[in-house]
Design brief:
Layout (H helix, E strand, L loop, with lengths): L8 E2 L2 E2 H9 L7 E3 L11 E3 L7 H11 L5 E5 L8 H10 L6 E5 L4 E9 L3 H9 L5 H5 L4 E5 L14 H9 L6
Parallel strand pairs: 3-4, 6-8
Antiparallel strand pairs: 1-2, 5-7, 6-7
Helix pairs in contact: 2-4
Length: about 180
């Protein structure tokens, strides 16, 4: 995108604001993990990465390490179609016997829309120390509960990473639940 992805506009509102709107009915305890001051306009706590340039693994590690709660809803900043309904389903179906609860569809697992336990901290730290930063490898080292996504809801999980994907998003009439 060549810009701060969470601040890209969709329907005249930043991606991050769409995500916050989906989370607020579930929790008011919102923290943004970012090293950018561009999010300071929001009224939420901004937490910097504890170890920079470690991608999603570093972001999840920073979030969990600085959280006061055992379980944490972790969301990437590039999913503007995510809905309260989907997040409520995630919370309702989470089983505490697992280290993480994530969604999956026929094509892939969605590791950046999930509930993560602080039990993951040591495994995340080891991955960072060894510079082993692939999410799919990390997921093989923890107990993951997977929730299947109904095909008619799969668009709600779409990551927007390119201008072409943003244009496709803007050209389609998706319903944000």
């Amino acid at each position: 995108m060549q810009s701060e992805k969470g601040l890209v506009l969709y329907q005249n509102k930043a991606f991050i604001e769409h995500i916050i709107d989906a989370v607020l009915p579930i929790s008011k305890n919102i923290q943004l993990i970012t090293n950018s001051n561009d999010y300071d306009y929001l009224e939420y706590n901004v937490v910097k990465d504890l170890i920079i340039d470690k991608g999603p693994i570093g972001g999840i590690y920073s979030a969990l390490a600085q959280s006061e709660t055992e379980l944490n809803l972790i969301l990437s900043c590039d999913i503007p179609l995510i809905s309260t309904e989907i997040l409520s389903e995630l919370v309702a179906k989470h089983n505490s016997n697992f280290d993480a609860t994530l969604f999956e569809d026929a094509n892939r697992i969605h590791p950046l829309i999930g509930i993560y336990s602080k039990k993951c901290l040591s495994i995340l730290k080891k991955a960072i120390d060894e510079n082993d930063l692939k999410m799919m490898i990390f997921l093989t080292k923890i107990k993951v509960q997977k929730i299947n996504i109904e095909e008619n809801k799969s668009h709600l999980f779409k990551n927007i990473n390119t201008i072409a994907e943003l244009n496709e998003l803007n050209n389609n009439e998706y319903k944000i639940a």
